Known about the structure:
This protein has helices at 13-17, 30-47, 60-70, 99-105, 113-117, 129-146, 158-169, 173-178; strands at 2-8, 51-57, 81-83, 151-156, 187-193, 196-204. It has 209 residues and is an alpha/beta fold.
Amino acid sequence: xxxxVAVRHGETDWNRNGRxxxxxxxxxxxxxxxxxxxxxxxxxxxxxxxxxxxxxxxSLRTRQTTDHILDSVDxxxxxxxxxxxxRERDLGVYQGLTYADVxxxxxxxGLGDAAYEAALAxxxxxxxxxxxxxxVTGRFKRLVDDHDGGTVLVVTHGGPLHVLLGYAKGMExxxxxxxxxxxxxxxxxxxxxxxxxDILRENATEWDG
Length: 209
């Protein structure tokens, strides 16, 4: 059995302003840093002595979130492994636009229902939703196989977490992306064993207050 504890990054100003971040190097804001520190303390109370490995997206906001979490969670002399597999969708030329602008002007690439139905659409210079799903689920499967019997912490983004929740529930991609929500620094817990994945915790923010 492999336990995967997956956390979304803390808030950024682009989150607050409704801008699509994709791969942009956007830092946490003050709220995001507070969220990440609180999530770290909460995780330390539950998993500190159980976490065997830490993986994270190599984006700036996930690196910073991981740093704040590890102020509380002791992983000894082990290193965080920052990987592109856990990144948010590459939005190409639409990166930095607001969700409202993209959904109105380019609905095939927005985050509304039209975009979820167009899972193979590729924004100029970016990647399709299917590409995101393939890289995230592929890495998750390898991680589960490689760390059987362990507990792994993953710090990532909302999109990859929607993908993983849908994968665990056997949902179609468009449904997984359209029907899940992830708060900043929300905690999710997956248990994988014998080819099945169960969700023990989803979009949990018990650390908040």
